[in-house]
Design brief:
With about 290 residues, this protein is an alpha/beta fold. The protein contains 14 helices and ten strands. It folds into two domains: about 220 residues; about 50 residues, no CATH class. The strands form three sheets. The protein has a five-stranded parallel β-sheet. A three-stranded antiparallel β-sheet has the order 9-8-10, with helices on one face. Strand 6, helix 11 and strand 7 form a beta-alpha-beta unit. Helix 2 crosses helix 5, helix 7 crosses helix 11 and helix 8 packs across helix 9. The two termini are about 30 Å apart.
Length: about 290
């Protein structure tokens, strides 16, 4: 079911215990590849609301296949869907300009050239109360702050712009809708999106104005997580390494494993498909990202 305005989205967010998914383009590309094996309802049936930032929408609409998959999402009963324009973030956060600026600053903070750009060309050594209006500084950030390249279709792709949009949206929901949201899950296979979010949350934890604020969890489902989950639910059949090669390439994985004494092993390593075949059969293993 499509939501048709930001005001209707805010009205929905006045509910309770909403399970929210924020969807990245690269996950949509993966889900489209496995659609003949796993339905969209099997993947998203546990969520109440699917959100996609406008910047991600432009990437989705580069492909008729990805657009078609989104249309399948719209047909799932009892799940709401909305494309959120980044300009609507201000209304979503109830016009708290300074808070919204901090969420963008911390989301960009692990990319030092981008953080420096914000401080030099947007903050400009002024107090937050003297910032330009949100639309003005948002355009400066997205037009001049992110490096771009022109694609064959003529669209300009901006490195990390979509991941920052996802990060800020997740933080708005986690920190400013704590009475309405049960969990926010980000579907992405982009490690930058994961790292940006972890960095931003750590910065908020150390900020005097936010560290004591209760917030809801933000979790992630990478493509490898989805393979693990769908395989163990019996929805995705993988018998041979050749089967696995249809779905993934070798990739660095964050994981945790429960040991015999219930202690937890944490790991981060490059995992090839043969090893991943064994990992998805291990019921003591948890894929973090």
């Amino acid at each position: 079911m499509t939501i048709d305005s930001i005001s209707n989205l805010k009205e929905l967010l006045m509910g309770k215990s909403l399970k929210i998914c924020i969807l990245d383009n690269n996950s949509l590309e993966f889900l489209n590849r496995i659609k003949e094996y796993v339905s969209a309802k099997d993947v998203f049936g546990g969520y109440d609301l699917i959100l996609v930032p406008e910047w991600i929408r432009t990437e989705i609409e580069d492909s008729e296949y990805r657009k078609a998959y989104v249309n399948r999402l719209l047909e799932i009963d009892n799940i709401y869907f909305y494309y959120v324009d980044e300009l609507e973030y201000l209304e979503l956060i109830n016009y708290k300009d300074a808070d919204l600026f901090n969420l963008f600053l911390y989301s960009c903070g692990s990319v030092k050239p981008l953080e420096s750009f914000i401080k030099r060309y947007i903050l400009k050594n002024k107090p937050l109360e003297e910032l330009d209006d949100y639309e003005t500084w948002l355009n400066i950030l997205y037009i001049d702050g992110f490096k771009g390249e022109i694609l064959s279709r003529g669209r300009e792709r901006k490195k990390n712009a979509g991941e920052i949009s996802i990060c800020v949206l997740s933080l708005i929901l986690a920190y400013f809708y704590i009475d309405s949201v049960e969990n926010i899950t980000i579907f992405t296979n982009d490690r930058d999106a994961y790292d940006f979010n972890k960095y931003a949350v750590n910065k908020l934890h150390s900020h005097k104005d936010y560290k004591n604020i209760e917030h809801k969890p933000i979790t992630f489902k990478s493509n490898d997580f989805l393979i693990y989950e769908l395989f163990n639910k019996g929805l995705l059949t993988i018998e041979y390494e050749e089967d696995m090669s249809k779905f993934r390439n070798e990739r660095w994985i964050n994981y945790a494993r429960k040991k015999h004494d219930n202690s937890i092993e944490e790991g981060y390593k490059l995992v090839k498909n043969a090893e991943f075949m064994e990992m998805i059969k291990d019921n003591t293993l948890y894929i973090v990202f």
